Design the sequence.
């Protein structure tokens, strides 16, 4: 059996809060976590609209039912989530979503000009955001890893050049069940390799977007 690949044009959806106008102060690209959908994730950022911030929420290219067939037959729950990648054919998934995110960036920023850009990744979206910015095709001022860390497979040499003069933050809830000491140790080791020291911001909460903490970035 021979493994083959095929390139083709496809469509992807994203959601937007606010419009790009001469009064737009910032543009935020917010990347959801595992099992989420962009149309619901973006609702957590509505508060930014009051500050002339346009929010763009791309959705991961792979969607799936959150419960297996047997569970769905019993519960009637047909909820769907999305994922940026899995362990299967991961390199191709990463390449595809970087191409997709670069295309989205170009579309949005064509009308935004030199407005400051923040890229926020939540949970699994943190790794996605990190790989995306490391690709080097987006101009941004701030990277926020919220409830997530740098991925261990980042290209260190390339990422150093991209991140050395950018503001980088790590944000998490003190009761987040998914962030253990081992994850923070991994994060610190990668940050040291990158030659950066992300600013750490915590809040009283779990694995979620905290509104009061979000407003600190205005």
Sequence:
């Amino acid at each position: 059996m021979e493994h083959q690949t095929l390139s083709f044009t496809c469509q992807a959806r994203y959601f937007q809060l606010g419009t790009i106008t001469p009064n737009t102060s910032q543009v935020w690209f917010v990347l959801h976590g595992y099992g989420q959908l962009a149309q619901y994730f973006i609702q957590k950022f509505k508060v930014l609209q009051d500050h002339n911030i346009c929010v763009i929420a791309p959705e991961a290219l792979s969607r799936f039912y959150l419960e297996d067939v047997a569970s769905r037959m019993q519960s009637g729950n047909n909820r769907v989530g999305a994922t940026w990648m899995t362990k299967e054919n991961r390199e191709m998934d990463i390449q595809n979503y970087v191409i997709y995110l670069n295309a989205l960036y170009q579309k949005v920023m064509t009308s935004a000009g030199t407005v400051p850009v923040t890229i926020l990744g939540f949970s699994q979206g943190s790794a996605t955001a990190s790989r995306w910015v490391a690709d080097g095709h987006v101009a941004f001022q701030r990277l926020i890893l919220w409830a997530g860390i740098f991925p261990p497979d980042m290209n260190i040499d390339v990422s150093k050049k991209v991140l050395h003069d950018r503001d980088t933050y790590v944000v998490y809830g003190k009761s987040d069940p998914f962030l253990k000491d081992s994850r923070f140790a991994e994060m610190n080791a990668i940050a040291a390799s990158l030659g950066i020291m992300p600013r750490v911001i915590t809040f009283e909460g779990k694995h979620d977007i905290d509104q009061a903490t979000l407003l600190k970035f205005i």
Observations:
- Strands lie at 14-17, 26-31, 53-58, 62-65, 80-83, 117-122, 142-146, 167-173, 199-203.
